[in-house]
Amino acid sequence: MLTRYQYMQALERAGGEPSKVEVEKFRYPGPRPRSRETALLMLADACEARSRAENPNSEEKLREIVRSVIEIVERDGQLDNTQLTLHDLSLVTESFVTTLRGTYHPRIQYPAAELPGATPVPTAPPTNQ
Q: For residue range 11-38, what is the model confidence (pLDDT) as tens digits?
C-alpha cells in the first residue's frame, strides 16, 4: 500500500510533478494480502489511522472515510487475492463504522466531581471539537 500522506508531501515538494517522485519509495514492503483475515487487518488499520487523522464529526463522515479507504485499497489491487466479495466489503464497512463510532464519538465536558468532604477532582481539559 502507498503511504499517501508522505507521498503527497513529496509530490508537493516536487512542484506537483509525479515524474520527480519515486512512488515505490512510498509503499509498505511485503506481499499483498492473500487471505481474508490479512486483508481485514490491513483495512482496519488504514481506517483507524485515517479516522484519527481526520477526526470525523458525524457518522456519515466516518462512513465516507471507511468507504474511501476500501475503494483506494481495492483500486490498488490489494484485495485481488483475498476472495473478499462486494457483499463482504459492505458488511465490513458497517462493522468498521460501528466500531469507530464507538471510539470517535463526541464527548461532553464533565463538570468537576465534588465529593462530600473532599477536594474537587478536576476533569480533563476540553478538546477542540
A: 999 998 989 998 888 888 888 999 999 9
State the cell numbers at 54.
Answer: 481526520
Q: Where are the domains of the chain?
A: 1-30, 31-104
The CA distance from 60 to 66, in Å, is 10
CA atoms within 13 A on the CB side of 121: 7
Q: Which pTM was predicted?
A: 0.70
**Taking the chain, what is the end-to-end CA distance rounded to the nearest angstrom?**
31
Report residue 38 as a C-alpha cell: 490479512
Dihedral of alpha carbons 84, 90, 92, 96, sign: positive
